Amino acid sequence: MEKRREDDNVSLEPLPAPGAPWDEDVFEGIFRRCFAEIYRHVYRIVGSGPAEDLAQETFLRLYQQRFPPGSEHNVRAWLYRVATHLAFNWVREANRRERRDQRFVTEQASARSEMDPQEYVERRAEQDLVRKALACLKPAHAQALLLRHAGLSYREIADVLGIAPGSVGTTLARAAEAFEKAYARVRMQEERREEHAGTREA
Fold first, then answer.
1. Which tens digit of pLDDT belongs to each residue from 31-41?
2. Is 29 exposed, middle or buried (0-12, 13-18, 19+ CB in 10 A)?
3. Which of 105, 112, 140, 202 has a CB 3.0–4.6 Å from the CB of 49, allowing a cystine?
4. How is 168-196 classified by DSSP, letter by letter?
5. pTM (whole model) above 0.70
């Protein structure tokens, strides 16, 4: 039997009655336990710049949400589903504005000061490649990989994606295969771009 994590208890919180506001103590407890992990999940998709705003927006929507009567919702899965939707919408909008690279924010200043400059540049380049590769995948595949990386169980991933728990393993396997191909393609394109830039400078 799968061992439940402490965070899974969020699914057992008493939900407000239909049309009624949240109990402030209950909502604050959910916020304290879940905000950090929701922020980290969003950060992996969009970077640190908009991550906090999107995480805050996720909890604002939870506060405004009115759940149907007689239903027991997994609030944690609901938060991941909304946060993922908001984050990918942000990425798509940034792409349309052709300012995506400018919106991917750098690591915290403290990390830069503690890291060798060359190592920092290489890590940033690797993060950009990963994000570009994820953007090439089907949304469900990209979301599945990010949710698994965030530590969600197969059942929780199924709740977020709206699929059967038994199909999560297959989805992850296909997503991993698609990511490897996309990453290799993106890396090759980047290497060719750098070679072309070097040739022009010469």
1. 888 999 999 99
2. middle
3. 105
4. HHHHHHHHHHHHHHHHHHHHHHHHHHHHH
5. no
